[in-house]
Amino acid sequence: MSKVHILVFPYPAQGHILALLDLTHHLALGGLTITIIITPKNLPILNPLLSTHPNTIQTLILPFPSHPNIPAGAENLREVGNTGNYPFINALSKLQQPIIQWFTTHPNPPVALISDFFLGWTHQLATQLSIPRIAFHGVGALLTAVLNRCFRNPTTFQSKEVADFPGIPGTPSFRRDHLPTVFLRYRESEPESELVRESLVANAASWGSIFNTFRALEGPVLDHVRAESGCQRVFAVGPLGSDRVDANPDGGSGVLRWLDQWVEDEGSVLYVCFGSQKLMRKEQMEALAFGLERSGCRFIWVVKEAFTAEEGYGKVPEGFENRVAGRGIVVKGWVPQVAILGHRVVGGFLSHCGWNSVMEAMVAGTVIVGWPMEADQFVNARLLVEELGVAVRACEGADSVPDPDELGRVISRVMGVDSPQKERAELMRGEAVKAMSEGGSSSKELDQLVEALLQLGVKEE
Ligand code: UDP
């Protein structure tokens, strides 16, 4: 067993952490010894991984640094919502000293640091430790290309109504409010903002970059990112985690049984879910309900429960479930998304276009009916709709209310047997599976990554 030791530092948000943990699993299988930096309350997320690799994966548990804008006890972004990113990135940067202390007293210190791209400040940490830092992007390469541009020249991009990105493959352009939220929150000269900007800019200077994407999906953008950053080591190893088997959550098996009844009718069901945390207003819930009703399609609609008592949030209109009984169900809470998308009767996905959902849809070959709302979702939707043709847009914006008739029409058109998007999604499924299979692009790049890390250990000896 190799003693080459790697340090892994995930960012504590659902959308970031799972893919990096899946990568860590592959690195352990490749023969590396790994320490994961984690704060106490996030430790349970690591349990499955730690029990699979009891001898090769350890943890470095550090207390979550306090921050005036983070409620005491909150250690995961889920507990505060997306507005917590700036405080979280800043709070976690306080871990620099404890990490250095641990490192300098370790008998076999790590030879490299792999950290989430939101933790770009670790570039400086790695420099102090004299080890290479590798940025992990659990997101699309197009997002990285766009963010690099925005943060290098923030005032220009914040002052324009429409931001153009000449030179990025596909020459995308976005309305200002559709730029990534992490950029829109930036305020020049504000210390917390400056740390975030420096962090994201530092990613381009890292020793290497890993992306949860694959060549057939984003080859030209990956080449662009490599050329622009000058970093020769770009590894596209996705889709990561798409073989995840969820612990059976509330109602999960019931949903799968419900799907089984349509087994003769492959691809006929639309799965509706807006990620792990998005809640909708009353008007949005109503428009969506009527749109689904008018589409005439079979569907599963996953509704997240409101934490606040605000009127109508997360509530399905009265009588709706009865009206659609027999062809549609509403499920409250958490469902096993990977298993649902993988079910052969599910052919479409009404989604906010979060990157994990996108990857899971690619592997399952489901067409996406997109409703991007925030974060990287507008950028992802652009890739899916304009570049790849595997999706259509049904609505845009976190506060928008779709026209139910139009929504119903879009859904029934895309779900139809001769929809070109469905055909493209099926082609992309083949590419995703090929990328991950032996000899496929992602599988090869993962091997190259493991090899490069093992080599770093050899140099040490
Ligand atoms: N997910 C799930 N069940 C749910 C809702 C979400 O398994 O009921 C998973 C989904 O499979 C995906 C992740 O949660 O892996 C959501 O990540 P994504 O990037 O799509 O959206 P975010 O939650 O970050 O907005």
Describe the structure.
The chain is 44% helix and 15% strand. It contains 19 helices and 15 strands. Helix 6 crosses helix 9, helix 6 runs parallel beside helix 10 and helix 12 crosses helix 17. The chain has 461 residues and is an alpha/beta fold. Strands 3-2-1-4-5-8-9 form a seven-stranded parallel β-sheet, sandwiched between helices. Strands 12-11-10-13-14-15 form a six-stranded parallel β-sheet, sandwiched between helices. The chain folds into two domains: 232 residues, Glycogen Phosphorylase B (Rossmann fold, 3-Layer(aba) Sandwich); 181 residues, Glycogen Phosphorylase B (Rossmann fold), CATH 3.40.50.2000. Uridine-5'-diphosphate (UDP) binds next to helix 1, helix 14 and helix 15.
| Mean residue pLDDT | 94
**How many beta strands in the DSSP annotation?**
15
- Estimate the helix proportion, in percent: 40-55%
| Helix-and-strand structural type | alpha/beta
Q: Structurally, how many domains make up the residues?
A: 2
Which short descriptors sum up this protein?
461 residues, alpha/beta, Rossmann fold
Short overview:
With 461 residues, the protein is of the alpha/beta class.
Outline the secondary-structure elements:
Blueprint lengths: L4 E5 L4 H16 L3 E6 L4 H10 L4 E5 L23 H8 L3 H9 L7 E5 L5 H8 L3 E5 L3 H12 L1 H6 L2 E3 L8 E3 L5 H4 L6 H12 L5 E4 L3 H15 L4 E3 L15 H9 L8 E5 L8 H14 L2 E6 L16 H4 L4 E5 L4 H6 L3 E6 L3 H10 L2 E4 L6 H11 L3 E3 L10 H12 L4 H17 L4 H20 L1
Parallel strand pairs: 1-2, 1-4, 2-3, 4-5, 5-8, 8-9, 10-11, 10-13, 11-12, 13-14, 14-15
Antiparallel strand pairs: 6-7
Bound molecules: uridine-5'-diphosphate.
